[in-house]
Amino acid sequence: MATSANAIKTAILGASGYTGAELVRLLAHHPSAELRALTANSHAGKEMAQVFPHLGGVRLPRLEKIENVALDAMDVVFCALPHGTTHEVVAALPERVKVVDLSPDFRLFDIPTYEDYYGAHKAPDLQAGAVYGLTELMRDAVRGARLVANPGCYPTSAILALAPLLAAGQVEDEGIIIDSKSGVSGAGRAAKEANLYGEIAEGIHAYGIASHRHAPEIEQELGRAAGHAVTVNFTPHLMPMSRGILSTIYVRLANGAGADDLRATLAGRYDAEPFVRVVPEGTAPATRHVRGSNHCLIGVFADRLPGRAILVSVIDNLVKGASGQAVQNMNLQFGVPETAGLEQEPLFP
Q: Is 79 a catalytic residue?
């Protein structure tokens, strides 16, 4: 963690959640950022190590309530708060303070759609200035953004695999099926009966069937790539593991393209990217290949059904799906190397 006069003065709101703690882990040794404030209303007054013992070896600010932090003295504020709580926080910040919001509060640019899924939008005047922060696809816009809406975890895995193919006209925009599976950390750290060990272990279950909040986010960004509205069939599942997302995506081929063409398009699009990699033909990406890292791996397979292909995309939901991508976006906002704080390779086994 930097401590020079030129360090990026950083606050993390909601530091006692999984994404907040992951931000702390990634920023603790960031060469350009200095953690000045950590908030967690239910744990205010505690040391971070009391809430997350694995961070005990890092010198960190004590957890505080949001109202006790001078946010106007910060250079950047990471908001890792529940949906519906970020609007008013961001609205009260001075224009000079940059924001990376990990909640869904600024991801959906159509206000009625947001309100259908999340309730009242309390800062519609700020929405027009927000940039959707899927870094590899929105890099130039992120560089000049004051407010970055960090993408959801499921959308990150799906959009990175699909957007270049839709833009190239190699897959049909109808009949896209996204079957995603996530570790339980994606449900947050709050105590919930449905997340107890006895409810999660030794099984898998679908949830949010035909109604999950990430579906309109996926459709918004795929529509941007295709140049017109796109509708997808998206179903998430909860797996008995701590972290990771694997999305298996079924597409119809278009304009004479085959699986090899799709693989070539994705490989060309992401060839210079530090965190997105298209794996060799016949290789199936797995969540254990990206655990703890900011990487996304994408595989392409010819379906046995004529005219179809299967994409497999994997990320760590807490890193590339949340906190790692948030740091990547902050790096762009402040003109520091995009990979700063994110160079670690995946953990295996």
A: no
